[in-house]
Amino acid sequence: MVPASSPAALASPSAAVPGLSAVPAPQPEPSTRWLVGLLLVAALLPRLGVFFINENLFGDAVVRTELAERWLAAPHVITSYKDGTYQFGPLHLYLVGAVLSVFERDVAGRLVSLVFGVLSVVPLFALTRRLFGWRAGVAAGLAFSAWGMHLQFSTTAGSEAVSLFFMLAVFALVAEGVEENRFQPLFWGAVLLNFACALRYDAWLYIPLITVALVFSTEDRVASLTRAVGFGLVCLPFPLLWMQGNELAHGDPFFPIKAVEDFHKQWVADSGGAGGSLGWRLQQLGFWPAVALFTLTPGVALLGGAGMVRAWKKHPETRWLVVMAVLPALYFTFRAAVLLSFVPLARFTVTQLVLVPVFLAPGLAAVVGSRGDFARRAVVGVSAVLAVVMPVALGIYTFRTEGGLHDSLRPVSPTSTNPVAVMQVARFLKEEVAAKGGAAAIDDDPRYMDLQVAFFSTLPEMRMARVRWDTFRQRLGDARPEVVVRFDEGKLVKDPGVKLDGRTLTLDGVAYQEQDGFTAPLHVYRRQP
Asked: Where is the chain membrane-spanning (predicted)?
């Protein structure tokens, strides 16, 4: 029997309650497995659509893959900056290295990103569903699936897609632990935050942020302090071990972070921001909102932003998540616009922007209000069309097209392709040098395009002499290259052993003749008989 006070009893028709049968019964939630399966397909299809045309270009994708190759050749536990990972997280090298044992170098890193990029929709749905219901979870998942910038991250060998999966899982587990008042989800969330910290340094910021948020997660101060201390302690193993390794190797536990900061300070100077002009500061000030509007598309960004404001007022239990999105953005904006110690890139914004779709449902409620179904459908329809059309148009606009605005928009486009001139030289080296057991000398390039030439040439390291390496002279003597690649703004011509006379380049007394068919700023020379 069902107790008279139970929801089932109240929902059952009864002659004693006239008209009760006219009250519509609440619709049951669809199967969670079915919803998750739908979202996984929605995330996978567009990423597969660009996977086979995209190329490693941004996010140090080629460098990460080369470092993973070195690790795979001599597997070991990476303990510091100089132990094979430099400014990158060791976990990403492990993952890419493992897949390199099965797949080719151009595919391995991109496949890692694809798997984690598609799976990211699962914790995003879980987080949103817990806070605002299953319909909100589906809306967030669909918006994420169409996110053009993430399509690029999911199909190239950077670490953004992998790191984002772990961060979304952390947020979902923290939300579960707080709502259900259980420490087990918080424990696993802290474990996964260790993994995120082993991927990217910006994840380290979330250890204190989430720990402090947990202090205010409930009115029971003893319980909130206990969960905060427990979470914070479980977050520490990787950071402490990594700091110890760098202390032993470099004498400074924060050596990698300081190296990254020094790079950014120099980057500010090289980018023209050292003087602190008003234009530079304004550009950095509006960077995060601009990336949100352009990459998430205006409908998703504006609805999500409005939803954050509404949630802060009407859903205090979600304020911690708003802080996770807003406070890091403000911190990096302050460093960029005021301290002039940081140069933001669109790929640095993903951990904050991915939380915007979580708040689409409250945002729609805030914007539409009581205006009726027509207004609701119009807002949803326009937002959905923009969310699909803008990434598609941007992907077509930047695909294998160079110069001006095309180059500026390529980092946030669904499609990522190298300059045609670069790939032309890389193919020549692959077919005419690497395939025949030859060797090449490669100039450096201020825009790092020499990294792309070397990577796609498939030449083994021992058959390359690269000006960018401090072993250039040694490799030059060992490899005796028959081909030299020069960049117009490269440093090769400044070498005392190099003389350029018209179409003849002499390197350490050996003459090389320029070959036809290649486009500036690249020049290819073959050793004369």
From this structure: 32-54, 107-126, 132-149, 161-178, 198-216, 228-245, 287-309, 321-343, 349-367, 379-399
Between CA 360 and CA 137 the distance in angstroms is 9
Exposure string over 22-44, b if 16+ CB within 10 A, otherwise e: eeeeeeeeeeeeebbebbbebbb
Q: Specify the pLDDT at position 5.
A: 39
Spatial separation of the C-alpha atoms in residues 397 and 409, rounded to whole Å: 9
Question: What is the structure's pLDDT at 23?
Answer: 52
Number of Cβ atoms within 10 Å of the Cβ of 372: 10
What's the pLDDT at 25? 57
- Residues 318, 429: Cα–Cα separation, whole Å: 55
Say what angle helices 105-119 and 160-180 make with each other, to 10 degrees. 20
pLDDT of amino acid 369:
86
Task: Give the per-residue SS3 of 170-191.
Answer: HHHHHHHHHHHCCHHHHHHHHH
Q: Specify the pLDDT at position 525.
A: 97
Q: Would you give the DSSP letter of residue 120?
A: T
Whole-angstrom distance, CA of residue 47 vs CA of residue 45: 5
The Cα diameter of the chain in Å comes to 106
Whole-angstrom distance, CA of residue 526 vs CA of residue 397: 36
Closest CA to 130 of 181, 179, 196, 70: 179
User: 504-507 and 464-466 as β-strands: parallel, antiparallel, unpaired?
Assistant: unpaired
Query: How many residues comprise the chain?
Result: 529
Residue 9 has a pLDDT of 40
> What are the two backbone dihedrals, phi and then psi, of residue 464, each rounded to the nearest 5 degrees?
-130, 140
Q: Torsions phi, psi of 173, nearest 5?
A: -70, -35
Which region holds residue 515: left if phi is over 0, alpha if psi is between -120 and 50, else beta?
Answer: beta
Query: What 3-state DSSP class applies to 156?
Result: coil
Domain ranges of the chain: 32-395, 420-527
How far apart are the two ends of the chain, measured CA to CA in Å? 98
Q: Which helix (H) or strand (E) holds 525?
A: strand 522-527
441, β-bridge pairs: 465, 484
Residue found by looking up tokens 């700091």 in the block: 243
Q: Which residue has the tokens 């390794």?
A: 245
Task: Specify the 3-state DSSP secondary structure of 529.
Answer: coil
Cα within 13 Å of Cα(93), Cβ side: 28
Nearest alpha-carbon partner for 476 in 455, 507, 435: 507
> What sign does the CA torsion over 101, 107, 111, 112 have?
positive
Q: Which residues, 6+ apart, have CB-to-CB distance to 298 below 8 Å?
A: 383, 386
Torsion region of 500: left, alpha or beta (phi above 0 gives left; psi -120 to 50 gives alpha): beta
- Measure the CA–CA gap between 170 and 154, rounded to whole angstroms: 19
pTM: 0.92
Give residue 8's pLDDT.
39
For the chain, which ranges sit under pLDDT 70?
1-27
Q: Which two tokens stand for residue 7?
A: 């929801």
List, for residues 380-401, the tens digit of each pLDDT value: 999 999 999 999 999 999 998 8
Identify which of 12, 124, 100, 117 has the alpha carbon closest to the alpha carbon of residue 59: 117
